[in-house]
Amino acid sequence: MAAIFLLSYYMYLVAIPTYNRSDVIFQKTITTLLNGGIHYKHIFIFVANSKEKNTYAAALPDKSYNQIIVGKLGISNQRIFIRNFFKPGQYVVSIDDDIEQLLTLHKDKLAPIKDIHSFFLKAYHDLKRERKFMWGIYPVRNPFFMKPSTSTGLSFIIGALHGFIVRHDKKLNPSTLAEGKEDYEQSILYFLRDGGVIRYNFITIKTKFLAKGGLGEDRFERNKLSADYLFHKYPNLVTIFHRANGMTEIRIRDKSSKTRKLSSHSS
User: Fold this and answer.
1) 104 has which bridge partners?
2) What does pTM read for this prediction?
3) How many structural domains compose the chain?
4) 30 DSSP 8-state letter
């Protein structure tokens, strides 16, 4: 009942999947949210087991979150658990546990988004207007490549920060074979289901990608296995490339994807 009340009053709920980061989640993501106008009752923390739940409960201050929920181990399984935890039709924003800032493109520089609450609300209204079910942000913190535009076709929606309207649809479940690149498969699945996703190409985040802790290690081998799986399952949408350090990566692309300029955006 509490979650239903919160949705009707605040319009959104915030889910933080986390593992082995009880020492940073408050200093980073939770503080970012609270300073951005998010009420602590919005915030639901999802951990892998009861031991983790106890650790986080001991580490976090009072009135910094609504509830700590024991979900599943592994980010693919946890994302599925989170979506099924909430009720169909609810609007959920998923954010990683080590986000220091949300940033918006201002001319050729990045500036912090002070009113995160209003941005989350705007994103919900954009979903409803465009008849889409998932939004995301630009995946790289580099203003040189960012644009004052929004994409509504097939775009990569990075798992670190995205929002979605809940549907209990197994066809939207990323496979554990995509672990580590489950957000790529999630982007593809929503595109195939809804004809597109919304991506704000003028908004990004400050975080330390590939930091220790989080939801897994052995990224080189895991990336290769995940990339091979996605390439063979979605050959018309996925291409593989390799970074200078040998890391296997993929790109997703659909020729019908649309990009247009926004009349305004939150800052």
Assistant:
1) 111, 203
2) 0.89
3) 1
4) I
In the chain, helix, strand, coil percent, each to 5? 35, 25, 45
For residue 55, with 0-12 CB atoms within 10 Å meaning exposed, 13-18 middle and 19 or more buried, which class applies?
middle
- pLDDT tens digits, 134-148: 999 999 999 999 999
How many CB atoms within 10 Å of residue 156?
A: 21
- Write the DSSP symbol of residue 174: P
Domain of residue 132 covers 2-261
What are the CA-CA distances from residue 238 to residues 92, 101, 155, 180 (Å)? Answer: 27, 30, 12, 16
b (16+ CB within 10 A) / e for 75-106: bbbbbbbbbebbeeebbbbbbbbbbbbbbbbe
Residue 191 has pLDDT above 80, yes or no: yes
SS3 letters across 181-224: CHHHHHHHHHHHHHCCCEEECCEEEECCCCCCCCCCCCHHHHHH
Q: Which residues contact 35 (CB under 8 A, 6 or more apart)?
A: none
pLDDT in tens, 192-206: 999 999 999 999 999
Residue 40 sits in a domain whose CATH number is 3.90.550.10
Question: Is 45 exposed, middle or buried (CB count within 10 Å of its CB: 0-12, 13-18, 19+)?
Answer: buried
How open is the CA angle 110-113-119, to the nearest 5 degrees?
A: 125
Residue 267, domain member (yes or no): no
